[in-house]
Structure formats: C-alpha cells, structure tokens
C-alpha cells in the first residue's frame, strides 16, 4: 500500500509542477526596440526599411528579431496605406524556435481636433510559418495623441488600444493597451517611448508587460 501511495503522491507533485511551469510561461516581461528608416520617393510615397529586436524571458535574452521592407502612400490628407513584408525569427520559450514570413496591409485614418490627434489603424496580416500553418489576422488600433508645444518639434502624450482577430481560431485573441510619449526632434528624427500591456489567451507567453522604444528616421 505504501508504494502505490508514494507513486500517487509523486505523480500529483509532477503534474502540479508542470502546471505551475505552464502558468509562469504564459507571462513575460519584455523590452521592444523598433527602428524605421523612411526614404522619400515622391511627396506622397516613401520607401521604408524596418527592424525590430525584442528581449524577453524577463529581459534576459533576445526572443524576437524582425527585418522588413515596405512603403507608405498618403492617399489625401487623412488616409495612409503602408503595406510591408517582415521576416521574423522568434524564440518565445526555451527550446522552441519559430520562423515566419508576414505580409501586412495597414490602412490608417488620421485627423486632428485642436491639440488632439486621433488615428484608427485597420491592419490585415497574412502569416506563413515554418510549421506550414498559414493564418490571417485582423488588427484594429485606436490611438489618441495630445500635443504639447509646436507640432513640428513638440512632445505628444499617447494612449491607445489594439484588438486582434485571428481567423485560424475564429475569435478575438489579443488585446494591447499602450501609453507613452513621442518627441519630434527635427524633420529627420522622431523618438517614441511607451509602456504596453498585452493580454492573449492563445499565445505562450501571451500576457506581457513591455517597455518599448521606436526610433523613426526620415532621410
């Protein structure tokens, strides 16, 4: 009787340990760094180079590296279209590596109300992963900016929220809330800092606390 009881206790302990590990894996603290270099081609058309590095596993190692190209087309005063391609290499958890080629089509409506600037970005993504799985995702981000000082060299406070719908699982899978600030230094350089909270019931890790920085250069 003692051996079966001991075996049962050890089994329950192992299961509890695995469950605890999975729970820890669902949450992470990360630092995101994004760089965008824009090369004007015409007054309405820019060519873009994109790069991203994300440190995760409690900011202990790189977990996401991205490089891509795209362009921005300004369709009138209020609408921009910015299709791009990204090559993505991810190591979200230990002993797991994911490669992805992603095609993205963001369409952004932006307008100003006094010192407030409002934008609504609707983005479609087609994802091709090394597992062979293809997926389509829709993202909607609403962002509010409040400008302090001159619009050409001013400081803006930002607050926004973004939701994700994934057709591979037919559900809303992710929400991102962000707050931060953006500073225009000159015509060639803008810098943005933000805190982002992500909640995701599908990805591992899905619940993230992120400190981020975006550097934008215009040649």
Describe the model.
- The chain is mainly beta.
- The protein has one domain (29-218): Beta Barrel (Porin), CATH 2.40.160.
- It is 11% helix and 68% strand.
- It has one helix and twelve strands, in the order αββββββββββββ.
- It has one helix spanning 2-25; strands at 27-40, 45-56, 61-75, 79-81, 84-90, 98-113, 116-129, 134-148, 155-166, 171-186, 189-200, 207-218.
- Strands 1, 2, 3, 4, 5, 6, 7, 8, 9, 10, 11 and 12 form a twelve-stranded mixed beta sheet that branches.
- A hairpin with a 4-residue loop joins strand 7 (116-129) and strand 8.
- It is globular and about 50 Å long.
- The relative contact order is 0.15.
Short description:
With 219 residues, the chain is mainly beta.
Secondary structure elements and their pairing?
Layout: H1 2-25, E1 27-40, E2 45-56, E3 61-75, E4 79-81, E5 84-90, E6 98-113, E7 116-129, E8 134-148, E9 155-166, E10 171-186, E11 189-200, E12 207-218
Parallel strand pairs: 1-12
Antiparallel strand pairs: 1-2, 2-3, 3-4, 3-5, 4-6, 5-6, 6-7, 7-8, 8-9, 9-10, 10-11, 11-12
Helix share, percent? 10-25%
Largest sheet, if any? 12 strands, mixed
Q: How many separate domains make up the residues?
A: 1
**Alpha-carbon Rg, integer:** 21 Å
Taking all residues together, what is the mean pLDDT? 89
CATH domain class: Mainly Beta
CATH topology: Porin
Q: Based on DSSP secondary structure assignment, what is the total number of beta strands?
A: 12
- The portion of residues forming beta strands comes to over 45%
| Number of helical regions | 1
Distance separating the two termini: 77 Å
């Amino acid at each position: 009787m003692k051996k079966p009881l001991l075996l049962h206790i050890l089994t329950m302990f192992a299961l509890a340990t695995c469950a605890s590990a999975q729970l820890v894996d669902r949450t992470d603290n990360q630092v995101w760094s994004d760089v965008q270099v824009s090369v004007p081609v015409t007054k309405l058309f820019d060519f873009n180079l994109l790069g991203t590095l994300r440190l995760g596993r409690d900011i202990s190692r790189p977990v996401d590296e991205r490089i891509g190209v795209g362009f921005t087309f300004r369709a009138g005063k209020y609408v921009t279209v910015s299709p791009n391609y990204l090559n993505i290499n991810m190591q979200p958890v230990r002993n797991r590596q994911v490669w992805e080629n992603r095609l993205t089509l963001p369409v952004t409506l932006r307008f100003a109300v006094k010192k407030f600037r409002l934008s609504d970005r609707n983005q479609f993504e087609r994802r091709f992963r090394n597992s062979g799985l293809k997926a389509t995702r829709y993202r909607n981000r609403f962002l509010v900016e409040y400008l302090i000082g001159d619009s050409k060299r001013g400081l803006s406070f930002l607050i926004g929220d973004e939701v994700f719908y994934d057709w591979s699982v037919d559900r809303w899978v992710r929400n991102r809330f962000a707050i931060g600030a953006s500073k225009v230094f000159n015509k060639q350089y803008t810098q943005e800092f933000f805190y982002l909270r992500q909640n995701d019931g599908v990805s591992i890790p899905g619940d993230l606390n992120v400190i981020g920085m975006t550097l934008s250069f215009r040649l």
